[in-house]
């Protein structure tokens, strides 16, 4: 029987793919460059393809490729279901990525996104009764549509707890620190705060004792869980009152307290630390953005001291209220009630970006890379 051209092409293609599959590292490298959606489809081809993209080695390859194409994940508006959008740097077009609405969540309150890491996001959903305030805590992978509800921690009396997420250096490792109130001190002077930590390696909470402070509500934030992870530590704002306090904890669970940068007492109040003060990660270093009426300052923590690295104009007036502020390696992203703005460090220029598909209401945006990681951090991943 004479072979047709179409049959010949299929046979040659199959032979070529057999050679590619035989070179396992080359095959994995090719697949790691695909989108998460395409990789999930590749799992259905056969058992070999499924095994090739299901181990920890491949997950590491895929994240490394994804980090070359960074984006932001955005929740422009809190609602009954959390609609998440991807924003690619440059164009900043909003592309719907996922809707997070687990059936087990409390329907009485909205979900809030508080962190993004290795393709996962941490979200909270308020629970409350007359004496206790608490959250459901979710780890979600928007790209695979998987969600994980963490076990409830100890009750927090009279005030809501504060959360912070730490991760790495291994892609499968993350910890969630939960600071909460256990009631009044025995002396009757103030409230006693303790901390417990959830680890992806154990899947359980563990108490690590008392802490000196409960983090504050950052300007216009609906929760106490605004934080930044930089240089292997979580940082929370505690107080803006002079001298100002930051609370930090590292992956080894050691807490420290540090002060905010000092402005001259001869300056006007509006030219010193303001209510619109934000912690950010600037190139892996803890940094502080202080917004004034028509300009802003950026401070960076270097060698155990604050260094003022930038003072520049704001592109909007104080009538355009800032609702959220975050950063990537090369820029600051600022969300106001009307617009989305970016500030590039290399050009020192602001640029107004496109409008969201809905009006900003308690928005949240974070740097994001798509990944295949399970919500438990990778405990189910096998292989190298």
Automatic annotation (TrEMBL):
Protein name as it appears in the record: F-box associated beta-propeller type 3 domain-containing protein
Domain F-box associated beta-propeller type: 103-307
Pfam families tied to this protein: FBA_3
InterPro entries cross-referenced by the UniProt entry: F-box-assoc_dom_typ3, F-box-assoc_interact_dom, F-box-like_dom_sf, Gal_Oxase/kelch_b-propeller, SCF_F-box_component
């Amino acid at each position: 029987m004479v072979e047709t051209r179409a049959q010949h092409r299929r046979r040659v293609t199959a032979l070529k793919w057999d050679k590619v599959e035989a070179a396992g590292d080359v095959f994995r490298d090719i697949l790691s460059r695909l989108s998460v959606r395409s990789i999930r489809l590749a799992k259905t081809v056969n058992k070999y393809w499924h095994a090739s993209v299901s181990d920890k080695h491949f997950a590491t390859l895929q994240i490394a490729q994804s980090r070359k194409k960074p984006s932001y994940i955005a929740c422009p508006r809190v609602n009954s279901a959390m609609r998440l959008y991807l924003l690619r740097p440059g164009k900043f077009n909003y592309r719907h990525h996922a809707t997070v609405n687990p059936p087990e969540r409390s329907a009485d309150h909205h979900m809030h996104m508080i962190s993004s890491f290795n393709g996962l996001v941490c979200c909270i959903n308020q629970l409350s009764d007359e004496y206790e305030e608490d959250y459901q805590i979710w780890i979600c992978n928007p790209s695979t549509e998987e969600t994980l509800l963490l076990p409830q921690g100890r009750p927090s009396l009279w005030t809501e707890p504060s959360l912070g997420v730490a991760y790495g250096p291994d892609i499968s490792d993350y910890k969630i620190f939960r600071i909460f109130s256990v009631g009044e001190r025995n002396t009757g002077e103030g409230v006693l705060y303790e901390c417990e930590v959830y680890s992806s390696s154990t899947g359980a909470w563990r108490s690590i004792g008392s802490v000196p402070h409960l983090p504050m509500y950052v300007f216009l934030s609906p929760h106490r869980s605004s934080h930044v992870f930089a240089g292997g530590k979580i940082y929370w704002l505690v107080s803006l009152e002079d001298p100002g306090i930051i609370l930090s904890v590292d992956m080894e669970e050691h807490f420290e307290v540090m002060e905010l940068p000092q402005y001259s007492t001869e300056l006007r109040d509006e030219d010193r630390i303001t209510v619109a003060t934000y912690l950010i990660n600037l190139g892996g270093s803890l940094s502080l953005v202080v917004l004034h009426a028509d300009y802003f300052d950026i401070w960076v923590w270097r060698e155990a001291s604050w260094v003022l690295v930038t003072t520049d104009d704001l592109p909007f007036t104080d009538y355009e209220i800032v609702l959220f502020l975050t950063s990537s390696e090369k820029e600051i992203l600022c969300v106001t009630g009307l617009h989305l703005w970016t500030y590039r460090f290399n050009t020192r220029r602001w640029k107004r970006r496109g409008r969201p598909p809905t009006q900003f209401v308690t928005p949240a945006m974070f740097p994001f890379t798509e990944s295949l990681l399970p919500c438990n951090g990778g405990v189910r991943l096998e292989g190298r």
